[in-house]
Description:
This protein is of the alpha+beta class. Helix 2 (58-80) crosses helix 3. The mean pLDDT is 96. It has helices spanning 3-9, 58-80, 105-120, and strands spanning 27-30, 33-39, 42-43, 46-47, 86-97, 127-133, 142-150. The protein contains three helices and seven strands; from the N terminus they run H-E-E-E-E-H-E-H-E-E. The protein has one domain: CATH 3.30.1330.40. It is globular.
Amino acid sequence: MSIDQRLQALGIDLPEAAAPVASYKPVVVHGGLAYVSGQLPFIDGKLVTGRLGEDVSLDDGTAAARACGIMILAQLKNALGSLDKVESILKLGAFVSSAGDFKDQPKVANGASDLMFEIFGEAGRHARSAVGVPVLPLGVPVEVDAIVAIRQD
């Protein structure tokens, strides 16, 4: 089953890859790796905003991280032409805008991590960071970046 077929079976429609909001490239491919810049959460075409532990629930934060993961896939497909070129998700970095007493950043990051496993199976298991920060660009609750091994055929 191709990755596109897998996405379809899971009911996931990839959005258009978001344009950069500053001076950077969304994806850089070098030496068999794709480095994906931090992606922001869009749900139903709208940017999600807020902070965990204040005005964003754990469930909504997890959904926002999943939305970041979906945008990572959209960026990879745009850069590589096909998600079937993904060999393995190596690492995700999740940044969670959260109140000082919020301690569930890893649970929020699972939204993106679980998505990668759903799509790529064992090749979607990865190393990860989940870091609490006071604020993120455009007021989003989560930003996720990735390092991905790509097939060289």
